[in-house]
Amino acid sequence: MQPEDLVRDHTIYACVMGSRAFGLATDDSDTDRRGVFVAPTPLYWRFEKPPTHVDGPLPEQFSWELERFCELALRANPNILECLHSPLVEYADDTGRELLALRQAFLSRRAHESFTGYALAQRRKLDADLRTHGVPRWKHAMHLLRLLTGARDLLRTGRLTVDVGEERERLLAVKRGEIPWPRIETWMARLAAEAEEAARRTPLPGEPDLRRVADFLHRVRRASACREPLGTTDPVEAGSPQGAGL
C-alpha cells in the first residue's frame, strides 16, 4: 500500500488550516489542508510499519496517522491542537467525529510550555532576520502575535479558538509592515506576560486525559483488526461545530 493510498482510503478527519482557518486569508492565500488517517491494523504486523505522516497527495496537504496525531496532541503541540480545533472541517467519518469529541481531553497546562516554547523559537528567527536584513519577516511576526494571543486566551478560558476574530485587521496591518517594529515588540511582550499570568490561574487540568485517548485508540485499532464498525462511548457534544454538515 502506497502512502497516498492511506490518505485517500483511510482518512477519518480532514480540515483546512493556515490563514483561511485563522481568519487571516487574503486573495493570494494558499489553502492548507491537514488530515488524520488510520493505517489498517494488519499493516503493523509487518516488519515495515506504516508511515507516521504523509505529505500530499494534493498540493499543500499533510496528514498524520492517528496514533502519531494523538501523541503530539497529548504533548500540546500547537499545530496539532489548532488542527483539531479548525473551524473549517471538510470531512469527518464516525471515527473522526469521535476524535473531535475528545478535543478537551487533549488540553492541559502543558499548553503553556509548548505554545510559549514555540513562540520563543519563532522570535529568535525574527531577531535573526532583523540582524541580517534590517527588517523582520512581517508575515512571521503576524503569526507569532496570533499564536501568543491564542495561547493567552486558551490559558484564560480553557478553550482553544483558532479564528482571530476582531484582531484580523490589526494583524494584517502587521503583515503589511504598517506597524513599527518597536510597537510589535511591546505587543509581544505584553501578550507573553498575560499568558504567564493566565497560566497561574488557568482552568486547564494539569495533565491531559490519557485514559480516554488511549481507550479511543485501542478501540480504533481493534475495530480495524476485526474489520468491525467502531462503536463509540462518548457521543459528539451536542451543538459542537463539527456536528454540523458532516
Describe the structure.
This protein has helices spanning 3-10, 19-22, 66-74, 78-84, 94-101, 103-106, 110-133, 138-157, 168-175, 181-201, 210-226, and strands spanning 11-17, 32-37, 53-55, 61-65, 89-92. With 246 residues, it is α+β, with helices and mostly antiparallel strands. The chain has 2 domains: 3-107 and 208-243, Beta Polymerase, domain 2, CATH 3.30.460; 110-201. It starts with a helix and ends in a 20-residue tail after the last helix. The model is unreliable at 228-246 (pLDDT under 50).
Question: What's the short version?
Answer:
With 246 residues, the chain is of the alpha+beta class.
List the helices and strands and how they pair.
Layout: H1 3-10, E1 11-17, H2 19-22, E2 32-37, E3 53-55, E4 61-65, H3 66-74, H4 78-84, E5 89-92, H5 94-101, H6 103-106, H7 110-133, H8 138-157, H9 168-175, H10 181-201, H11 210-226
Parallel strand pairs: 2-4
Antiparallel strand pairs: 1-2, 1-5, 3-4
Helix pairs in contact: 7-8, 8-9, 8-10
